[in-house]
Amino acid sequence: xxxxxxxxxxxxxxxxxxxxxxxSNPPSVAPPSGPSSEPASASAIGQGSRHxxxxxxxxVTALIRDFGTPRAPIRAVDNLDLTVHTGEIxxxxxxxxxxxxxxxxxxxxxLRPTSGSALVAGYDVVREADAVRRSIGVxxxxxxxxxxxxxxELLHMQGALHGLRKAKAKERATSLLDRVGLNxxxxxRVGGYSGGMxxxxxxxxxxxxxxxxxxxxxxxxxxxxxSRAALWREVRSLNDEGTTVFLTTQYLEEAEQLADRxxxxxxxxxxxxxxxxDLKARVGEPTLxxxxxxxxxxxxxxxxxxxxxxxxxxxPEAPTRLALRSGAGKGAIAPAVQALQASGIQxxxxxxxxxxxxxxxxxVTGSTLEGAAAESSxx
Length: 379
Hints:
The chain is α/β, with parallel strands linked by helices. The chain is built from 12 helices and 14 strands.
């Protein structure tokens, strides 16, 4: 794949239009001009690379998207700035109606912005939409797949749409079916596929032309734990080969397991961004939950622990339980137990509770992510 040229100037104004994109899956577009050939591997970016190269994989500047009418506009994306570094997995979270889906549709050329600029793989999503589509792979939840076709036939067709010669398209289809574990099901009609098999096929279809940037829209929603873990392994493998991954998800565990950085959108604006570790550190310190054997020892225990961190107010319904916030986390267990024992106080148990991405999400958006409830029930 040819290298992205110099990015155009930022902040150009665009005429808004109704969301009436003529296609449902960005990879299904006209092939690039010139002789038909198989695109270069994403590993050209740098095998196993997570380096921040000069050209970001995604660069959004002052982006706005309005719906409704000029007299009564509804702003879905509000002056958004966002950068995704080449070679990283970027997790994108947001409550319903926050602007998450709108932004993804803009970045994948399915929707024009009202104003501002968005570059993907160095190309402008409006002025160079065809080049963007040649550079990206997209697995959207609402992607339309003919249930009467086999997985192999769909991959052959996708290869032809991307300009692969017949022999190359067949070779690529066989390789991808093997990669996503659908060899045995490749010649079956996809209407009989399970949910997990469909998502794996979606991923394979998005990879036919070896994109440098991969957009995954809630790829594991509704999957069982085994299928989810298998897809996680594949996403990590793709990223290790140099593919940048833009991942939207409802599962906080998924973002924490996969993402190098996480961005949270609310009200059309980016309200938090950073590594999962950094985001959790901003919310608060780990908490030691200390269970005493004698409820009458609690006042003395609080005095003994006073210099080791911040004690939460006592809870009348749990007289034997103390909560001590300490940045040392697990490292505070031994000093706390020693301080209590030195005061003649017996300890029943000690547990450490670390801040979670759910805590971060709730703190910056005032709500919980839909997938968080599913994770809690599954646990």
